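ok new one. same drill as before - structure tokens go in, u give me an amino acid for every spot. 315 of them this time. try not to just spam alanines like last time pls lmao
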């Protein structure tokens, strides 16, 4: 069961209108029907959710080409206590936008969100090698600023939605370097863990108690011993000293699953502190049969040991 944004609830996300974030949000019927708060930055989105000024914050967290959106991830790890309610994955299609009458040969400046610009390196190198690259807060902000500027020697890298919203023309379509490019978004709230669906994902951050040889292997062994499949493993500096890191771990399963609960218990008892970021429906299907078999095997083992312990004579 997915946590639904009820009518009258407020959802904060990165604006202005026309961002990929808005495109992903509008693909979720309940989120599309909620009251929208467009924010100027990702930190503002998460701040609004953390302070209760919005019921949900909706933000990009990972791109298949450029990797983690660090500003979002670090805010979830170090600044706020928010829980992921769902994830949304969309295909990313980037287009070169310009004023009516602007041709490729006329372009001297390209404006966009730096992550989007980085995803179009090959196209820009081949077609606009001398164009100045300027940063904007989002792809939609780039399109809006271009529309306001009336600069026919400039172009923006943006979405099809922003092209329509800001009255621009498509100079070139699908200019991303990798057609399989995808971005993952998450909806976060101050409280609540969605009920398990059978196709769930859990996100945690592990802070090691001691930086010693084999410590990460010990943490990962807890998952391997229970046949829990990891979908993401990433280290992040903890902002204290050079070389000090914590580990973001995404894995298949839900905190309500006995295997998952047992695994996290062992990690906290033996290896380090854990910040729980949420258990939520996975956007892609995992390995339910394998997970089910592992859970059944573990339950059988627990029943076996419980039976042995019942035979212990009380003094």
């Amino acid at each position: 069961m997915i946590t639904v944004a009820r009518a009258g609830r407020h959802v904060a996300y990165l604006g202005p209108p026309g961002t990929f974030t808005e495109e992903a949000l509008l693909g979720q019927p309940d989120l599309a029907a909620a009251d929208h708060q467009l924010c100027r930055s990702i930190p503002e989105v998460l701040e609004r959710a953390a302070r209760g000024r919005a019921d949900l914050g909706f933000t990009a967290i990972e791109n298949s080409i450029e990797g983690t959106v660090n500003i979002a991830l670090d805010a979830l790890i170090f600044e706020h206590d928010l829980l992921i309610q769902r994830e949304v994955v969309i295909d990313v299609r980037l287009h070169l936008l310009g004023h009516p009458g602007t041709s490729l040969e006329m372009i001297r400046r390209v404006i966009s969100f730096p992550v989007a610009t980085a995803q179009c390196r090959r196209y820009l190198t081949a077609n606009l090698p001398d164009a100045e690259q300027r940063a904007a807060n989002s792809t939609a902000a780039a399109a809006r600023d271009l529309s306001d500027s009336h600069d026919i020697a400039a172009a923006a890298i943006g979405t099809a939605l922003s092209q329509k919203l800001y009255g621009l023309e498509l100079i070139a379509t699908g200019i991303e370097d990798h057609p399989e490019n995808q971005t993952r978004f998450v909806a976060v709230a101050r409280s609540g863990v969605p009920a398990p669906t059978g196709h769930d994902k859990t996100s945690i951050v592990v802070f090691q108690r001691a930086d010693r040889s084999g410590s990460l292997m010990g943490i990962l062994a807890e998952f391997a011993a229970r046949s829990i499949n990891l979908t993401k493993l990433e280290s992040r500096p903890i902002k204290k000293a050079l070389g000090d890191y914590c580990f973001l771990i995404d894995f298949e399963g839900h905190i309500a699953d006995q295997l998952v609960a047992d695994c996290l218990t062992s990690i906290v008892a033996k290896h380090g502190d854990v910040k729980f970021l949420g258990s939520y429906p996975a956007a892609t299907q995992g390995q339910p049969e394998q997970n089910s078999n592992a859970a059944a095997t573990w339950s059988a083992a627990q029943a076996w040991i419980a039976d042995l312990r019942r035979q212990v004579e009380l003094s």
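The longest strand covers residues 272-281. and btw The CA atoms of residues 64 and 73 lie 15 Å apart.
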